[in-house]
Amino acid sequence: MSPARLPSRPRLAAATAFTALAVLLALGSPVPAAGAAGDGGGHHRGNCVGSPRPARGPAREVLRVAERARAEMDLKSVTVRVTVGGRELVTSALGESMTGVPAEPAMHFRNGNIAISYLGTALLRLVDQGRVRLDDPVARWLPGLPDGERITLRMLGASTTGLVDYVPLPEFQRAVTADPFRQWTPKELVDLAASKPRWYEPGTNWSYSHANFLLLGAALEAITHTRLDVLLQREITGPLGLRETRNSFTPDIPRPVLHAFTADRGPYEESTFWNPSWTTAPGAVQTTDICDLERSAVAVGSGELLSPESYRELLNPGTVGLGHATERCPAQVCREQTEATHDGLGVLVLGDWVSQHPLFFGYSASMAYLPSERLAVAVSTTQGPGTPPGHTAHTILQRIAAALTPDHPVPDFG
């Protein structure tokens, strides 16, 4: 959910003819990404707009892939941004936000588990600052957590605690379907997860649980004596210039808003302001735009804010080799973590790419970075009435990667 080779980094496939230089030559003169330079990559800050020139070459191919997918999957909108070496290849929005309202690149959408990649990076920045160690037990900061002496910060970030994920639980599904506007508290959610027997002993297996990141957010606040939204702004979004990525403690979305619709409850209905309070730790429930999503792909995927040692931990904090079915934990939950495809500390390593992929009631998004080519792809979609099940943004990202760099496919995730 394998990037460029540093010592101990995942494998790097052989170089392809489609290099950053080849892309820029195909485009003619390099065109800087929209916005001011001087923020670590010349990326847009504050006004995410479409590409200023007619698409040709690889940019035209990206748009062709996006338009075909929008029609094939009956998507209401597709927004895409691709950069190579920090320079814009294409930024575009297709379709509508609402009936008669065109989608635009500057529109904001749910950031979802992109914020989990920020949590993992923030934890590793505290490690780099000498404030914590990954293998410190969380009982020091979360004294009421069962097994807190055996659960470490690493286990929370790497999803190896054994805590059950509350999201698939029937009681949670019934509650969130009955009232999608409900404001959930972290205690309610962690109590749901803790009410079930652990899948396995801490550190002995792998399984995804939203509860891990609720607890990681609480631990980061306790470690730093700082509210999580303030901490993430200080350590992540501020240094990266992500001015359009914002936390909210309500379901509000800053204008301009990319509206969402879903048939998850039966009828096709608007879901834009359904409450995302259950998705991750308070302070990390964010919205973003496509330019900040691409910037995040580059920064997180390259380890821009981390030491080389912490970047290696980000990509593999010990998850490779874990993930096996047991009597308690079925294979679809305790999924195999391989060198080629595994979870890191808040990121997914998918082949040669570093990725993450939010999904929330009508919204889906996907970001991925290919270090060997310095290629970043960001996609956001909203559903139409006939959109099939699945992660449509990730599917489009896979197709864009196949068109631009066929020797570096983006695998499916579990």
Verbal overview:
This protein has a single domain, classed as Beta-lactamase. The protein has helices at 20-27, 58-72, 114-128, 153-158, 170-178, 186-194, 210-224, 228-237, 290-302, 308-315, 392-404, and strands at residues 75-84, 87-98, 101-102, 109-110, 246-247, 261-262, 269-270, 286-288, 341-343, 348-350, 353-356, 359-360, 363-370, 375-383. Helix 2 (58-72) packs antiparallel against helix 11 (392-404) and helix 3 (114-128) packs across helix 8. The longest helix has 15 residues, at 58-72. 29% of the residues lie in helices and 15% in strands. The chain is of the alpha+beta class. The chain starts with 19 loop residues before the first helix and ends in a 10-residue tail after the last helix.
Write a concise synopsis of the structure shown.
This protein has 11 helices and 14 strands.
Counting DSSP E segments of at least 2 residues, the number of strands comes to 14
CATH class: Alpha Beta
The DSSP helix count reads: 11
Outline the low-pLDDT stretches. 1-45
CATH architecture: 3-Layer(aba) Sandwich
CATH superfamily: DD-peptidase/beta-lactamase superfamily
Query: Span between N and C termini?
Result: 9 Å
Share of residues in helices: 25-40%
